[in-house]
User: Which sequence fits this backbone?
């Protein structure tokens, strides 16, 4: 029954993106891009979980495509590290590797720390102060707006990356974005964790407003260290959003 529900959810997510007879946002996409978007969405939201076989025939049927664009999409996702293709065995969602998670967080810490150092010199004061007001508007006691805090927190990273003044650095950080979206969707959203992250975001924005690049870089490092440890703990103790079915490569 659980498998049937998962298949139904995947089919619904794909069918909802099909172009209607009157046209839609996807009508201008190539067949390969449609397959790529559907596959990627299912992986990043963990409707297809780590280690799951990729049901190529379901995508062919649900998207009304031939096998070729679906296979081309799988090859692109393999290059991006989200899919593993094993000859004679099949196509699978890539496993989570604990060491790789640590390494990716370490790389992002270094990159975004440098971006924060530069953004402290370049980010518009008005935009930073507006973001500070939006963050401060959330209650930190009583009922916590988990979703609102999380969504507003993303803007902290967006303003850092967007105003780092280095296009190569920006591109390198954005190239990792899909993996971190997947990590966030794996990690359970506990109110206390979101609140802790929210307070860290406030401190980071304060350092940017103060034009203190060294402090901003240090706070980014602390922020990602906490996020990485929380994710690893939730994976290891089985409390991750995907539950006990999660497979982790050592």
Assistant:
């Amino acid at each position: 029954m659980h498998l049937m529900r998962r298949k139904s959810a995947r089919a619904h997510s794909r069918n909802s993106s099909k172009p209607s007879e009157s046209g839609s946002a996807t009508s201008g996409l190539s067949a390969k891009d449609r397959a790529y978007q559907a596959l990627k969405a299912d992986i990043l939201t963990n409707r297809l979980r780590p280690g799951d076989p990729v049901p190529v025939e379901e995508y062919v049927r649900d998207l009304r495509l031939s096998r070729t664009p679906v296979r081309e999409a799988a090859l692109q996702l393999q290059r991006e590290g989200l899919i593993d293709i094993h000859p004679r065995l099949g196509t699978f969602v890539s496993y989570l590797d604990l060491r790789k998670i640590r390494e990716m967080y370490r790389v992002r810490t270094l990159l975004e720390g440098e971006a924060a150092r530069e953004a402290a010199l370049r980010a518009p004061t008005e935009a930073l102060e507006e973001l500070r007001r939006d963050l401060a508007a959330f209650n930190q006691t009583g009922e916590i707006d988990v979703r609102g805090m999380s969504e507003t927190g993303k803007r902290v990273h967006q303003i850092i990356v967007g105003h780092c003044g280095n296009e190569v650095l920006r591109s390198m950080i954005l190239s990792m974005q899909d993996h971190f979206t997947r990590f966030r969707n794996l990690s359970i959203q506990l109110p206390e964790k979101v609140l802790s992250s929210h307070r860290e975001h406030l401190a980071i924005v304060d350092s940017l407003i103060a034009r203190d690049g060294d402090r901003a870089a240090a706070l980014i490092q602390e922020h990602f260290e906490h996020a990485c440890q929380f994710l690893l703990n939730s994976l290891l103790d089985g409390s991750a959003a995907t539950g006990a079915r999660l497979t982790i490569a050592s």
Summary: The CA atoms of residues 146 and 190 lie 8 Å apart. The first strand starts at residue 83 and ends at 86. The chain has eleven helices and four strands. The mean pLDDT is 86.
